[in-house]
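**Entry details**
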Amino acid sequence: MKWVTSIARGFLSLQRRWQGVVAACLFWLVWMIAGFWDTLLLVVLIGIGFSVGRILEERTTWQDVVEKLLREHYHDS
């Protein structure tokens, strides 16, 4: 388990551009192994999981999130 921590620390110590390169290479690797549609589904599920986790972490309701999104895009002028 220590090797995972050391890899994570090494990754986080990289400059942002190199983090982007590593992320892009991992994305490409998953795409080549799983295929386009499986990778697209994985990205969508990760986005949904991130959103649900953020909502639960902030202890907000779905109504608050929708109102915030609509307020940002359709504000009164």
Q: What stands out?
A: The chain has a mean pLDDT of 83. The longest helix spans residues 36-58. Residues 35-77 form one domain. The radius of gyration is 18 Å.
